[in-house]
Amino acid sequence: MSENESTSGILTEIDHVAIAVRDLDAAIDYYNKAFGATVAHREVVESDGVEEALVKVADSYIQLTAATRPDSPIAKAIEKRGEGLHHIGYRVDDCQAALDAMIAAGATPIDKAPRPGSRGTTVAFIHPKGSFGTLIELVQE
Length: 141
Ligand code: CO
What we know:
By secondary structure, this protein is α+β, with helices and mostly antiparallel strands. The chain has three helices and eight strands.
């Protein structure tokens, strides 16, 4: 196998690493001071109760994510475990096909069907239980 040959199957990229934070502006400021990183995209996803700021790293993103309301999944995660890594977004060409493959492999879907995500993407979440403790988001651009 050549060095460039992919071994990741239907995964085409790490789309994003999502980090739950209490104060989005403070986190953006920290990434700017520490890395000189600036925000490529910022968006409120009202349906999820989150506001996210995306820092682009090559073809992937660091997604700093804060809650916009107390019943947001990010608010609940921070309440339970504090700030920190929240989920990994795996980029795929076909979210439905990837979701079907994960269910066939025994994964527990949170989303029964793909739905709209930020940046105009199509996404589906997989429960960490049964996925080695990692909340997985399938992301189709
Ligand atoms: Co995400």
